[in-house]
């Protein structure tokens, strides 16, 4: 079975631009979550989607948004990029509810904002 | 709020056992996880333990859970240079359907 696939692997953007990251979950997995990893803050939860609905959101500004499609694929969008948005963005999928089934992560998208 | 703590660094010699420790706070957490991250890569799920278990063994990996002390440990037997990586402990935040991660333990294996 293919793992969680994230595209692109690397992105370089300028302050003020917007960016869209993509995630394809493991086949059959219905929940998709997003996390941000930075050296200063570590791994932080962004949001979780299930059946195209955002069920939970972490403590991030409204510039961070996402969506999930009917095939469970997910995208996240960051608008009006700031230097502090430079991070590794990780997508994870789980078969069922993250409370009840393990999360499997992709290799991430490394975003650099200049 | 939930908090997961780990020591930052561990150095061992090849062939020795490594023990990485973690403390957590959410007593309602259903699962507790260990992830491995190599340079430039994402998080690899190493193993996990359900909260009603005390121990889980998976080849070279042994996870011990002490619910009373909210202490989790990962033992790697016969540690190899390929085990050099950052290891993250995580608990499930059942209210948010999210994981709360520790800051990671960097394991350095010396030949």
Tally the beta strands of chain A. Answer: 11
Structural class of chain A: mainly beta
How many helices of chain B in DSSP terms?
A: 0
Name the structural class of chain B.
Answer: mainly beta
N-to-C SSE string of chain B, H for helix and E for strand: EEEEEEEEEEE
Fraction in helix of chain B: under 10%
Strand content of chain B: over 45%
Biggest protein-protein contact in the assembly: A-B, 26 and 24 residues
Mean pLDDT of chain A: 95
- The helical percent of chain A reads under 10%
Cα distance, first to last residue of chain A? 37 Å
Assembly of the depicted chains: heterodimer
Rg of chain B (C-alpha, Å): 13 Å
C-alpha geometry of chain B: globular
* Biggest sheet character of chain A: 7 strands, mixed
Helix tally of chain A? Answer: 0
Residue stretches of chain A low in confidence (pLDDT < 50, at least 5 long) are: none
Biggest sheet details of chain B: 6 strands, mixed
How does this model look, in words?
The complex is a heterodimer of chains A (114) and B (111). Chain A is mostly beta strands. Chain A contains no helices and 11 strands. In chain A, strands 2, 4, 5, 6, 9, 10 and 11 form a 7-stranded mixed beta sheet that branches. In chain A, strands 1-3-8-7 form a 4-stranded antiparallel beta sheet, with no helix packed on it. In chain A, strand 7 and strand 8 form a beta hairpin. Chain A is globular. The N and C termini of chain A lie far apart (37 Å). The model of chain A has no long low-confidence stretch (mean pLDDT 95). With 111 residues, chain B is mainly beta. Chain B has strands at 5-6, 9-13, 18-23, 31-37, 44-50, 55-58, 61-66, 71-76, 85-93, 98-101, 105-110. In chain B, the strands form 2 sheets. In chain B, strands 2, 4, 5, 9, 10 and 11 form a 6-stranded mixed beta sheet that branches. Chain B has a 5-stranded antiparallel beta sheet with strand order 1-3-8-7-6, with no helix packed on it. Chains A and B meet through strand 4, strand 5, strand 9 and strand 10 of A and strand 4, strand 5, strand 9 and strand 10 of B.
